[in-house]
Amino acid sequence: MSEPRWLTDEEQRTWRDFSAAVGMLRAHLETQLQQDAGMPHTYYELLVVLSEAPGQVMRMSDLAIATRSSRSRLSHAIARMEANGWVRREACETDKRGAFAHLTQAGLEALEAAAPGHVEAVRSSLFDPLTPEQIRQLGEISATIIDQLTPRCAAAAAEELERLERDTAGT
Amino acid sequence: MSEPRWLTDEEQRTWRDFSAAVGMLRAHLETQLQQDAGMPHTYYELLVVLSEAPGQVMRMSDLAIATRSSRSRLSHAIARMEANGWVRREACETDKRGAFAHLTQAGLEALEAAAPGHVEAVRSSLFDPLTPEQIRQLGEISATIIDQLTPRCAAAAAEELERLERDTAGT
DNA sequence: TACCCCTAGTTGAGCACTCAACTAAACTCC
DNA sequence: GGAGTTTAGTTGAGTGCTCAACTAGGGGTA
């Protein structure tokens, strides 16, 4: 175990600013959406993805992947959204294990009511203060981070699987 | 109420990538810290700030401000961290309402055990894939967002206050 | 056909957070 | 110096998350 590669003062400053900026942005958007539309940001994202799906229906698994959510989280979320009347669960005929999440009219209306305020919040807190050049840079940076982390998610899943198998082998 | 300023396709792509990148980064760091050190990222931040304070003691309010946390969140967090033995609450002699949070030896050790893994995770997922130029850009962008959102927090607090007063006036 | 493993989705417990309500001490101002 | 207002911090209920355990159906192989 060698000495870790600590952050330089400069890196530390950047990291703390980035952390703070992201934290403030999240908090700002979360509060705006919660107060004005009565939903957390994750539910908003689910409504957006569902509204763009053909027929406004999606299999639970596909919806989980599209929103980078765990199956469990999605299941809980859809349960609550169904209670709100925004979504309807439907059985899958060809695979009896499966389930569809179907956006309802009320769900679409909730999204349409929430969208303008949310978009305005994103625009005014992120896009307005940045120059076009910075926006381009932010896009590049984000894409790079996604590329860096995507294989790592797969690796983590594989490791998880391996650990599980090792545990099971002992019995 | 005029038509909202919707995002262009380009902006939308940038926003979704940024959202995804931040989400993946958060999830990655949260999981790493939770698995390797048994603490959420917010507790790690509290330990860091406390460890850098003179005497490793801070007033609750100051700690809340330094970590951009609500009083309530901090109070709950410190309660749990005290149960873990990482922190000790101490009374303030000069202001009987006040309380100090004092980092314990065990807390410092928990931080020292957690730090290398966390720093390595930050470095490998954020700093390694970015060029020095991009890191500089990210610092600039973050500072701009902070500047944009800081007055807005104050404004939100003022508005909240005003709302409270208006409600109270009615009684 | 029977067996075994894999995949889809749900469930419940536990944790962190928010919000609103609360206690108690300090300040302010007549 | 006493009443009203602020400030410091806590508390409890409700919500969304994670993790692990579970049900149940699909798919392969002998």
Which key terms come to mind for this protein?
6 helices, 3 strands, 71% helix, Arc Repressor Mutant, subunit A, DNA-binding, MarR family transcriptional regulator (chains A, B), HTH_MarR-typ (chains A, B), 8% strand, homodimer, WH_DNA-bd_sf (chains A, B), mainly alpha, MarR/SlyA-like (chains A, B), 2 domains, 171 residues, 3-stranded antiparallel β-sheet
Q: In a nutshell, what does this entry contain?
A:
The structure is a homodimer. Chain A is mostly helical and about 170 residues long. Chain A has helices at about 10-35, 40-50, 60-65, 70-85, 105-125, 130-170; strands at about 55-60, 85-90, 100-105.
Please, could you describe this protein's structure?
The structure is a homodimer of 171-residue chains. Chain A is mainly alpha-helical and 171 residues long. Chain A is built from 6 helices and 3 strands. Chain A has 2 domains: 110 residues, Winged helix-like DNA-binding domain superfamily/Winged helix DNA-binding domain (Arc Repressor Mutant, subunit A, Orthogonal Bundle); 41 residues. In chain A, strands 1-3-2 form a 3-stranded antiparallel sheet. In chain A, α1 packs antiparallel against α5, α2 packs across α5 and α3 packs across α4. The longest helix of chain A is centred in the C-terminal third of the chain and has 38 residues. Chains A and B meet through α1, α5 and α6 of A and α1, α5 and α6 of B. The first copy, chain A, binds a DNA duplex (30 and 30 nucleotides) through α4.
